[in-house]
Structure formats: structure tokens, C-alpha cells
């Protein structure tokens, strides 16, 4: 799902204009980014949390030249899904993740 598709979905479900929905989606994203910049953890109960991981400095290698380079330390954002989200995604639906119908199980009765 792209940002434009998310805006479209918010607009459809809420009966708001696309412009108003875009402002809402942008505000949510900006709020998450601003909190991460401040080093805060964002916790959306039942959905998951956004956090930062610190990467230590390390020695790297330039793939073109093979020269060794110093890679500086940095903070990297990551998303940790919540239990409810994992349960919703992994519950038995009869369909694989990609949305194609699951093959019939031996002995199972198909559609009539």
C-alpha cells in the first residue's frame, strides 16, 4: 500500500475529502518522525511500536574499490509489531499472505 492508497482509504472510510485525509496522514507520519528524532518510542497499543536502534561505528569496505572505510555510528528506526497485529496476520484464514487461494487439503470438500 502506498501513501496515496492510504490517503484514499482514509478518505473513503471517513467521508473526508482527499485533501483533508492527506493532511491527517501527513500529520501522523510527521508526528512519528519528530518523536523518533527526539529519541522517543512510539507505542500504538494493539498495533506495534516504533523504536530506534543504535548502530555502533564499524569498519566497512567500499564495494567498488575494496578500500576500507570507517562507518560512523547512527540511529536506525525500526518497527516492532504488537501481539494483536501478529495474531491478526497469522490467524488461520485459508489464504496465504499473497492473497492467492490456498490449495485444497486432501479430503476437503470444495465449493459446491
What does this structure look like?
The chain has 112 residues and is α+β, with helices and mostly antiparallel strands. It has a single domain, classed as IHF-like DNA-binding proteins (HU Protein, Chain A), CATH 4.10.520. The chain is 36% helix and 24% strand. The chain contains 3 helices and 5 strands. α1 (3-14) packs across α2 (18-37). The longest helix is centred in the first third of the chain and has 20 residues, at 18-37. Residues 105-112 have low confidence and may be disordered.
Features of this protein?
112 residues, alpha+beta, HU Protein, Chain A, three-stranded antiparallel beta sheet, two-stranded antiparallel sheet, 3 helices, 24% strand, elongated, disordered C terminus
Summarize the structure.
With 112 residues, this protein is of the alpha+beta class.
Mind sketching the topology for me?
Layout: H1 3-14, H2 18-37, E1 42-44, E2 48-55, E3 58-61, E4 68-71, E5 74-81, H3 83-90
Antiparallel strand pairs: 1-2, 2-5, 3-4
Helix pairs in contact: 1-2
Amino acid at each position: 500500500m502506498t501513501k496515496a492508497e492510504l490517503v484514499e482509504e482514509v478518505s473513503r472510510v471517513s467521508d473526508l475529502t482527499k485533501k483533508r485525509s492527506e493532511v491527517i496522514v501527513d500529520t501522523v507520519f510527521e508526528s512519528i518522525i519528530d518523536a523518533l528524532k527526539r529519541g522517543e518510542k512510539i507505542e500504538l497499543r494493539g498495533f506495534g511500536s516504533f523504536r530506534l536502534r543504535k548502530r555502533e561505528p564499524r569498519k566497512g569496505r567500499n564495494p567498488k574499490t575494496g578500500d576500507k572505510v570507517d562507518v560512523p555510528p547512527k540511529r536506525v528506526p525500526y518497527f516492532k509489531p504488537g501481539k494483536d497485529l501478529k495474531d491478526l496476520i497469522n490467524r488461520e484464514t485459508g489464504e496465504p499472505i499473497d492473497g492467492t487461494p490456498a490449495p485444497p487439503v486432501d479430503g476437503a470438500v470444495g465449493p459446491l
